[in-house]
Design a protein that fits this description.
Shape: globular
Number of strands: 0
Number of domains: 1
Number of helices: 8
Structural class: mainly alpha
Distance between the termini: 16 Å
Order of helices and strands: HHHHHHHH
Helix content: over 70%
């Protein structure tokens, strides 16, 4: 779980930072976040919460948010959309690569002692991707939806979510509704990619 968390988090945050740089904002670069070093992306409290989550089977963990200045993008709204999409997309892409590796391992019967690790990495990458697509701040889905809405509706959405988004997210977590939202698509994608049931 620790290896899966670190790799999934690193890929996710690196993708945000690299996408922001491609859109013309070097804030993340100057902060040292265009990096594949996991330490550069760890949030102290988020890491502690990950340990708690592993021990208790309940909770939520996170990495250090990538600093982004949308006003430096070539096109602020579309740049924000692209940067936000690249986080979840990178995790799905990484899960696809790992799934190919897993299929080869199973078909050839090689490195089978690493099968649980690769399975966990695929699963956690898919979970992180689906979780971040939920349109509630501070998740990527909120930036994606805001960028797609007409300007006036986006302002109202941002205002509402700025006030109540965190409360809604905590409520979903405490009520365990979050798991029922994330888990079904994760299981379906896992089976499609790996050919294995979970």
């Amino acid at each position: 779980m620790a290896v899966a968390f670190l790799t999934a988090l690193t890929v996710h945050e690196y993708a945000h930072a690299r996408a922001a740089l491609a859109q013309g904002d070097d804030t993340a670069l100057r902060a040292g976040r265009v990096s594949l070093n996991p330490i550069d992306h760890l949030d102290p409290l988020g890491t502690i919460m990950f340990v708690f989550m592993m021990l208790s089977g309940f909770g939520i963990a996170w990495g250090k948010p990538v600093p982004v200045n949308p006003m430096r993008f070539k096109s602020p709204r579309w740049g924000n959309l692209k940067v936000s999409l690249w986080g979840p997309f990178s995790n799905v892409l990484f899960a696809c690569v790992l799934s190919i590796l897993l299929r080869v391992m199973v078909q050839q019967g090689i490195f089978m002692s690493y099968k649980p690790l690769v399975e966990t990495c695929v699963l956690l990458n898919l979970m992180l991707a689906i979780f971040n697509l939920i349109p509630i701040p501070p998740l990527d889905g909120s930036h994606i939806l805001s960028s797609l809405l007409p300007y006036d509706q986006a302002r109202r959405y941002d205002y509402f979510m700025g006030r109540y988004g965190m409360i809604i997210l905590i409520g979903l977590l405490l009520s365990r509704v979050l798991g029922s939202i994330i888990w079904p698509p994760v299981v379906i994608l896992f089976k499609l990619l790996t050919g294995l049931a979970y």
